[in-house]
Amino acid sequence: MREMIISELSQALLELRSGFAHYLPRLIVMLIFAFAGWLFGYFVKAVLRSILKLIQFDKLSENAGASQLLTKAALPSASEVLSRFVFWVVWLGFILLGVSVLGIHGLQEQVAKFFFFLPRLFVALFIMFFGLLAASFFSRATLLAAVNANIPSPRVLSLAVRSIIIVFVLSIVFEELGLAEETMLVAFGIAFGALMLGLAIAFGVGGRDLARSFLEKKFVRAKKEENEDELSPL
Amino acid sequence: MSHDAFGVVPAVRTEIKLAEETFLTDDFVRQLINVGEVDILVGLPTHNNAKTIGAVVQSIQSGILQWFPRERTVIINPDGGSRDGTPELVTGISIDDFRPVSNLHALRTLHSISTRYGNSPSSSVALRTILAASELLRAKACIVMSPDSSNIEGDWVSRLLRPIRQDGFDLVTPTYRRHRFDGLLVTNLLYPMIRALYGLRIREPYTQEFGFSGRLGGEFLSQNAWDAATDEGGIELRFTLAAITGRQRICQSFLGQKEHIERRAADLVPALRQTVGPLFSALEPNFAVWSSVTASQAVTTIGPDPATLLESVRANRKRLREMFSTGVAELEAVFHSILSPSTLAELQRIAGSEESDFHYPAELWVRTVYEFAASYQKSVINRDHIIQALAPLFRGRALTFLIENRNGSADDVENNIEGLCLEFERLKPYLLQLWKSRE
After folding, report:
1. Given an 8 Å threshold on Cβ–Cβ distance, is B381 in contact with A140?
2. CB distance A231–B275 less than 8 Å?
3. What does the domain layout of chain B look like in residue ranges?
4. What pLDDT, on the 0 to 100 scale, is given for residue B131?
5. B322: distance to nearest CA of chain A, Å?
């Protein structure tokens, strides 16, 4: 009995040793990958940070309204966040490559999925950024046009334009990421429909006077006092 | 008269080859060949001006007959797609129509050529067409006339052409007798800012009536980019600025009374785009010129000084104030990107003040404009948005101008404008500081 235990134990130790001897080089390779990934990621981060600074990415992000969101979330500047994000993606990519060298069967599949997912993630981020940029641009254009045309509640109009664009962009982003596609589609439909209905009711109920005034200005001969209010600027 | 008699046909043909490759239509070029070389070219850009164009063309023809009967003259009418028969009216009015009445006789044929450059008006394409025609026909002097001047007289042609033909000036800008509250954008921004920056006191830097030498026209035609930026409007101001920075000989000539034109509120933003946009965008390429100018000097003025009419004009001050206050409140986030905190705080204080206390002082207005110019150069937000954001603030300044000059004499109004100009000049170092320091 005792000999059997010793034999099994020796066997197990032998297997452990053989397994360890088998995995140790792979582990070292994985660690080398991780270290190389860290170095490469750090290098990419530094280069990217310089490029973003050069192209004044923070200003672009400020215009897009992304900087305000980051500030509210107590996060650093947009260029810093993007640099760090790329660093982590690169490093994680290298770590996962290293892990795949270990030859763990289930893990390899997950690693492949991760690399398959990366391009979609980047496209989604790209859409998100330019979507925010478009939302900011069009909402500001609406605000300025409404203020200069003396339309009541210009900020509400501007906010409505921004919300519509952001909801639209989010639905595209989630579809690109493949996350809860059906749920997002339904949610988008409901949100968009509700927004339109709300606007229609608001315009119908609250904007009767505005609509009347607009139609009067458009089709009825302008009243005397309306002609008096501006002198020729040029 | 054959073209060979002019001795210019080969040269014209060579250049026409270039023109053909650019933007002039074959038919237009053919008509230009038929005209041959000219001494005077009158540009008359139009778009649905049938109501006024007849009187304008007759005044031009009368001026040519009276003052330049020996000169070879052509009227070039670039039309932006009129649907009321304007081009036909321009070419259909014969000089013989009023010769018996006026007892004037031309010694040369006066040609009128019309060409349609598109289906919508563009001052840039119209001027380019005029300049190209001027170069092809080797015109010595050119004038551009507004098609909707209801009180144009034959003398205007002479007053714009004579300084070029006789005194060798390259650019003649007009001065008018105007109502004290007309052209508020000119008196409160364009004139004082151009004067402070470039050192020349040109009262009407943006105008639809001006004269220029063929040489200046040719230089501008070849040097201007004629890109999307110039298509946005304000080519007339770009032309004036090009003459200033090119150190051309510039003078002003008094034309007469400029009719008061009532415009609706919506016209302000296009007016800003056509004037302030080109003014701001020219600051960067012309930095070396304007940054070295420290004082302003008078420009030779032919005829009397610009005069001010004091007739009462109704202006809705309440609406101006309301639009200023609403703009300051609603556009706060936009102004945060453009203005300094102290300027914005001052504007917010004024917007919240009682109507009787409303006052947008000259110094604050100048600081506002300079901060807008610096923000435009740095593109802190979309440049067109920066120009649009200036509209409510301009209304506030216009209101103060109306209040300050409500009961003033012509001299008081002139002194007020002069005071504002001096403020623009005094605060110029502030613009330079903003230009150099702002990131």
Report:
1. yes
2. no
3. 3-309, 317-437
4. 94
5. 9
pTM of this structure: 0.79
A87 inside domain = no
Task: Give the model's confidence band at B93: pLDDT under 50 very low, under 70 low, under 90 confident, else very high.
Answer: confident
Which residue of B173, B318, B323 is the best one to mutate when testing the A interface, meaning the one whose CB has the most A CBs within 10 A? B323
Distance CA A233, CA A229 (A): 12
Q: Select the residue of B263, B334, B382 nearest A233 (Cβ to Cβ).
A: B263
What is the domain-level CATH number for residue A139?
1.10.287
Neighbours of A75 (CB within 10 A): 13
Reply yes or no on whether the pLDDT at A223 is more than 80.
no
Q: How far apart are CA B209 and CA B164, in angstroms?
A: 14
Classify residue A9: in a domain, yes or no.
no
List, for residues A33-60, the tens digit of each pLDDT value. 899 999 999 999 999 989 988 888 887 7
Cα–Cα distances (Å) from B147 to B30, B42, B256, B328, B380, in that order, read 25, 12, 16, 37, 38
CB contact under 8 A, A229 and B320: yes
What is the rounded CA–CA span in Å between residue A114 and residue A107? 11
Average pLDDT of B211-216? Answer: 94
Into how many domains does chain A fold? 1
pLDDT confidence of residue B1: 38
Q: Enter the CATH code of domain B3-309.
A: 3.90.550.10
Question: What's the gap in Å between the CA of B274 and the closest CA on chain A?
Answer: 10
Mean pLDDT computed over B30-37: 89
